[in-house]
Write a structure and sequence with these properties.
The structure is a single chain. The protein has 9 helices and 10 strands. Strands 6-7-8-3-9-10 form a 6-stranded mixed sheet, with helices on both faces. A 4-stranded antiparallel sheet has the order 2-1-4-5, with helices on one face. Helix 3 crosses helix 4 and helix 5 runs parallel beside helix 6. The longest helix is centred in the middle third of the chain and has 17 residues. The protein binds adenosine-5'-triphosphate (ATP). The site of adenosine-5'-triphosphate has 11 residues, from helix 1.
Length: 252
């Protein structure tokens, strides 16, 4: 088996340390993520899914355990440094984009993350066709709104933009934290299909938290069930393909 691109070894996180309310949220998580994995994650409210993403992204350091990226111990690497190879899309469409900047400007910022940003006006012209083509892959009219301030977009368009910004530099790890949950069913299904196309075509490695069991089943090559701070099921390959909705309903 090839070396995992990202691995968690016996990760534990405590909250309210040294107080009467001290409790363990993640209770020894072990997870090897292979390059190209598209992992869907389900679990009841409070199971620890967002905490798991916080630990992977570096916004929360674990209390014990080790995190590896391409074989290197990055347990104490800051979230900012991890953002060079990892991006995350949140549930709230407002979180990923700058409201008083246009769609094009947001895309340019994302494309140039980590670089000097002096050439923005020229960059906008240079990249216009590329951004229009990219926006068109979302199939929601975003390509016609390149000069619109982000705050004037619909929630679905804004979330599609957040997704494009998170993936424009092809991160090694993409975290989708219920990124379709705030959208109406039709818009959510559209974004989910566009998400899957992008992940598949660009061979991205992605983890997606969802409460839509149908999406957890339909998409990805692997499905994790989290319960009370532990991974209680890890279905891969044929084991995932063979799962049914009623199987899943019995598990959570
Ligand atoms: N900073 C904190 N202090 C105290 N408790 C916390 C803290 N962060 C998380 N928790 C608790 O840890 C548990 C796991 O929370 P987490 O948000 O990871 O769950 P989740 O599976 O993402 O839930 P949901 O599906 O509702 O988003 C919950 O019981 C939550 O209340």
């Amino acid at each position: 088996m090839t070396e995992p691109i990202f691995a968690l070894k016996d990760i534990k996180t405590l909250v309210n340390r040294n107080t009467p309310n001290e409790s363990m949220i993640l209770k020894g998580i072990n997870l090897d993520i292979q390059a190209g994995d598209f992992i869907t994650i389900i679990g009841t409210n409070g199971a620890g899914k967002s905490t798991l993403f916080n630990v992977i992204s570096g916004s929360l350091l674990p209390d014990s355990g080790t995190i590896y990226y391409k074989g290197k111990n990055i347990t104490n690497l800051t979230a900012e440094k991890r953002s060079r190879f990892l991006s995350r899309v949140f549930q709230d469409p407002k979180l990923g984009t700058a409201p008083r900047m246009t769609v094009s400007e947001n895309l340019l910022l994302a494309a140039r993350r980590g670089e000097r940003r002096r050439l923005i006006p020229r960059g906008l012209k240079l990249h216009r066709e590329e951004f229009a083509a990219l926006a068109a892959t979302m199939h929601n009219g975003l390509e016609k709104r390149l000069d619109t301030f982000t705050e004037n977009l619909s929630g679905g368009q804004r979330q599609a933009l957040s997704f494009l910004m998170a993936t424009i530099k092809r991160p090694d790890i993409l975290l989708l934290d219920e990124h379709t949950a705030a959208l109406d069913p039709n818009t959510s299904a559209h974004l989910m299909a566009a998400t899957n196309n992008r992940i598949t075509q660009d061979h991205l490695t992605a983890l997606m938290i969802t409460h839509h069991l149908e999406d957890a089943l339909r998409y990805g090559n692997r499905l994790l069930v989290l319960d009370n701070g532990k991974i209680i099921h890890d279905f891969k390959g044929a084991a995932k393909t063979d799962l049914t909705l009623s199987d899943l309903r019995k598990l959570i």
